[in-house]
Amino acid sequence: MSTDAPVLVTGATGYVASWIVNDLLRDGYTVHAAVRDPENTAKVAHLQKLAEQHPGTLRLFQADLLAPGSYREAMAGCEVVMHTASPFTSKITDPQKDLVDPALEGTRNVLASVNETPSVRRVVLTSSIAAMFTEAAELPDGVLTPDRWNGSATLDYQPYYLSKRLAEQEAWRIAGEQERWDLVTIHPSLVIGPSLSAHPTSESFGIVKELGSGKLRFGAPQLALSLVDVRDVAAAHLAAAQNPQAHGRYIVSGSDSDLLGMGLALQAKYGDDYPLPRGPLPAWLFNLVAPLAGVDRRFARGNVGKRLVCDTSRSREELGLTYRSTARALEEMFPQALNFN
């Protein structure tokens, strides 16, 4: 990836995308940041601040995931496209409209423009381990490997997971129909760590906020989770773009834990001031009350008390990642999470 050519980042104001923009600017790249509204100063202020701090150049472009052709101008002259824009929200009324359509149609629209832009040589797509599985109980010995696809998510059951699988499969289909550009997909686990924006939107902040709210002070479920520092996710994207040999799917995860483990990791620094969980909530009890917490009982049964180990060997060996402490990332994230809306 030459610093002479601009790099397009879709959804540039997002949690992960902002750190990608930061790293690109730090390394001297010209970043074409595609956002919904470049004139919304509150949304883009942190990107402008990054541009002032680093040697690279920032250019803002208006683009809409569901508007065909809206990325053409931003993509002109780019050799690398980093497609991060995709919805991650628990506030849904219509799974098809709120999750699947933006993820799937957005991927189609971005890659249609890639096919029309002769300068593009590589696309790095932000996917998720959600594209690979729904329940830890599905995994052989609880180990998640990069060759796995999610076969259990539906519109009625974990539709976010379905949206990630469908979008990625569509990306691989489109990539396979041509030979000019290649595709690399990055699959983070639950992304944690500080946000560059004063108003983070990632639902992971909501999860961390719950830990400090007191709702789980009598016990947190041992709901299997893997965690990764947002800065490591950004580093994975740059490595995937810069390494000519990078190919296929990369699981990006710093540690394997559970919801209780996240709470315990915050105890040393924040335990005296906040009602963080100190012990486990029995699985049978969580299964009983799960719907009250917005958790499907099937999801609870398949993940509480289950083993989950992410195989990150490819990201370590081929992308050269060395993962940060996820406990430290949680500590840095916690004060921002308390103000999450």
Secondary structure elements and pairings:
Blueprint: E1 7-10, H1 15-26, E2 30-35, H2 41-53, E3 57-62, H3 72-75, E4 80-83, H4 95-116, E5 122-126, E6 143-144, H5 159-176, E7 182-188, E8 190-192, H6 203-212, E9 224-229, H7 230-242, E10 248-252, E11 255-258, H8 259-265, H9 267-270, H10 283-289, H11 297-303, E12 309-310, H12 313-318, H13 326-337
Parallel strand pairs: 1-2, 1-4, 2-3, 4-5, 5-7, 6-12, 7-10, 8-9
Antiparallel strand pairs: 9-11
Estimated share of beta-strand residues: 15-25%
Task: State the fourth-level CATH superfamily.
Answer: NAD(P)-binding Rossmann-like Domain
CATH class: Alpha Beta
The coarse overall form would be globular
H/E element string?
EHEHEHEHEEHEEHEHEEHHHHEHH
Helix content: 25-40%
Sheet with most strands: strand arrangement: 3-2-1-4-5-7-10
Rg of Cα set: 19 Å
Global structural class: alpha/beta
- Give average pLDDT, whole number: 95
What count of structural domains?
1
For the biggest sheet, the summary is: 7 strands, parallel
Number of β-strand runs:
12
**N-C termini distance:** 38 Å
- Number of H- or I-type helical stretches: 13
Q: Regions with pLDDT < 50 over 5+ consecutive residues?
A: none
**CATH-defined architecture:** 3-Layer(aba) Sandwich
Would you give the CATH topology?
Rossmann fold
